[in-house]
Design brief:
The protein is an alpha/beta fold. The chain has 2 domains: 238 residues, Aldehyde Dehydrogenase, Chain A, domain 2 (3-Layer(aba) Sandwich); 57 residues, no CATH class. Helices cover 38% and strands 13% of the residues. The chain is built from 11 helices and 8 strands. The strands form 2 sheets. A 4-stranded mixed β-sheet has the order 2-1-7-8, with helices on both faces. It has a 4-stranded parallel β-sheet with strand order 3-6-5-4, with helices on both faces.
């Protein structure tokens, strides 16, 4: 989206969730700008969602994506809500305790543990009331351990320049671990909200709410459920929130409302046509026809039969 050169850009995004404001004002209007952004950032519930049940819900926030101009404000808000950023050697120590050395995945030993206990196991000194640990990342995939689902109150944190870049990064994250599942966008811009809704490979697009309780229906009005289908994108047969309605067997009584026509008539006409062909011509011609009928059809034979059939009905496969 093109921006007014003199406008301040304000964006905020989470794991497919994205906050954006684009007021027309000058960069020096800093105080007014952040008064505008605080209401939405203040409702940003990544820490609350990730700390609920210590992050084991499949709908819990997994990554935070933030547009560069609002990075500092987002960090302050996350810290205000009880998150602790982990970097450098502390980041390496955290990965060592969280990663299964055999599989490279998440260690079962830390799943569902409180943030402070995970930090203690990694030898990190954090406040006892720490609600989430936040790790800065630049990549997505096997090379970046923290970009995967972590089943614990640990968030990946990405900073991108512009909502379009945040868009691209969110698709990367969803495709790596979560395609078809859920995405949250924090925004007042309906155009951006619709872009995320239309283009992201997720079947639950949540707006200005927490992921953990929004996807499960508590804060959004979706069907209340803890089992969330990712659709065919995620290898499931449904994209629904699975509820009791999916477990009901429905017995149906159905009366005929229109008669089935064509099968008997078509079969009769085919038999008549075959009889006429088989009995027409000389004895030699009939023998050739019998031989041809017994031989397997070639691709050209099939094409000719289809063309004859469609031609009789003034149709052609070339025009369909």
């Amino acid at each position: 989206m093109d921006m007014n050169p003199g406008a301040a850009r304000e964006d905020f995004y989470r794991d497919g969730g994205y906050f954006r404001k684009n007021p027309t004002l000058h960069e020096e209007d800093t105080e007014w700008k952040f008064e505008m952004i605080r209401p939405l950032v203040g409702r940003f519930a990544a820490v609350a969602g990730k700390s609920f049940d210590n992050g084991v819900l499949c709908s819990a926030e997994n990554s935070v994506l933030c547009d560069a101009p609002v990075d500092a404000e987002a960090r302050r808000e996350l810290k205000r809500q009880g998150a602790v950023f982990v970097a450098g050697d502390a980041r390496d120590a955290l990965q060592l305790v969280m990663q299964d050395s055999r599989t490279g995945g998440i260690s079962h030993a830390i799943i569902g543990l409180p943030a402070a206990e995970i930090a203690a196991r990694a030898g990190l000194d954090v406040p006892e009331d720490t609600r989430a640990l936040v790790v800065e990342c630049q990549a997505v995939g096997r090379e970046e351990f923290f970009s995967r689902e972590k089943l614990s109150p640990v968030l990946a944190y990405y900073v991108e320049d512009g909502w379009e870049k945040c868009c691209e990064r969110s698709i990367e994250l969803l495709q790596y671990g979560g395609v078809g599942h859920s995405l949250v966008i924090h925004s007042r811009d309906e155009h951006v909200i619709m872009r995320f809704f239309e283009e992201k490979p997720a079947f639950r697009i949540l707006v200005n709410t927490m992921a953990a309780m929004g996807a499960t229906g508590y804060t959004t009005g979706l069907a209340p459920a803890m089992t969330l289908g990712p659709g065919t994108l995620g290898g499931s047969s449904t994209s629904d929130n699975i509820s009791a309605l999916h477990l009901i067997n429905v017995k149906r009584l159905a009366y005929e409302i229109r008669a089935f026509r064509g099968s008997d008539q078509a079969a009769g006409k085919l038999r008549d046509a075959e009889l006429r062909v088989a009995t027409s011509g000389t004895e030699g011609q009939r023998a050739e026809k019998a031989k041809a009928a017994a031989a397997p059809l070639s691709a050209e034979d099939v094409r000719a039969i289809v063309e004859e059939f469609l031609g009789a009905r003034q149709l052609s496969h070339r025009g369909t």
